[in-house]
């Protein structure tokens, strides 16, 4: 199985901050990497697909980069509605696997 | 607008079978560009993909190794839905279960773009 490791596991930030989350695969996965946002009691929501493509309707303050085994999700200016948990997910192999999540909370 | 509506019991006794259904609106379970998945989430294991079914001239299934001996995912084309059956459950199967659509977003790359509302399933006597 492809193992996905996110860092940090949690972070505290303020509205307006630039936030960066990293995700590393234990093997190369090209750009077969998606990012999701999840709020308590809700299903995950697709933010970024193919490492750097913004899903329709997602604000442009979200961006993704990376290829191979190392990836980054950046929120350029954190908004109140962005406090949530973020997950990376590889779509290179079966089984599909997720990172353990990064919880972004209020500083 | 594609929507997935989950149904099924929230409490299952140990050794019994967990059964959930996901009704699809706005898309077809027989779509050639989608796969229909079940994902579960628990505090101990996080988000865990458990399996999928998809149609590409024939029906195919893939299952996670952790549940492969106990799981069946079926599509019902007459009702445009798919289902999860997990046999011989234990408390370790307690989780929120989500049905999801994986669709081709670019090239041959899939993403889980549509999710059901989630069902909390507790395995307890």
Q: How would you summarize what this structure contains?
A:
Chain A is mainly β.
Please give the structural blueprint.
The complex is a heterodimer of chains A (107) and B (125).
Chain A: E1 4-7, E2 10-13, E3 19-25, E4 33-38, E5 45-49, E6 53-54, E7 62-67, E8 70-75, E9 85-90, E10 97-98, E11 102-106
Parallel strand pairs in A: 2-11
Antiparallel strand pairs in A: 1-3, 3-8, 4-5, 4-9, 5-6, 7-8, 9-10, 9-11
Chain B: E1 3-7, E2 11-12, E3 18-25, E4 34-42, E5 46-55, E6 59-63, E7 71-76, E8 81-86, E9 95-106, E10 109-115, E11 119-123
Parallel strand pairs in B: 2-11
Antiparallel strand pairs in B: 1-3, 3-8, 4-5, 4-9, 5-6, 7-8, 9-10, 9-11
Describe this structure in words.
- Chain A is mostly beta strands and 107 residues long.
- Chain A is 0% helix and 50% strand.
- Chain A is built from no helices and eleven strands.
- In chain A, strands 2, 4, 5, 6, 9, 10 and 11 form a seven-stranded mixed beta sheet that branches.
- In chain A, strand 4 and strand 5 (45-49) form a beta hairpin.
- The termini of chain A are far apart.
- In chain B, 0% of the residues lie in helices and 60% in strands.
- At the A-B interface, strand 5 and strand 10 of A face strand 5, strand 9 and strand 10 of B.
Key terms:
heterodimer; A: 107 residues; mainly beta; seven-stranded mixed sheet; four-stranded antiparallel sheet; 0% helix; 50% strand; globular; B: 125 residues; 11 strands
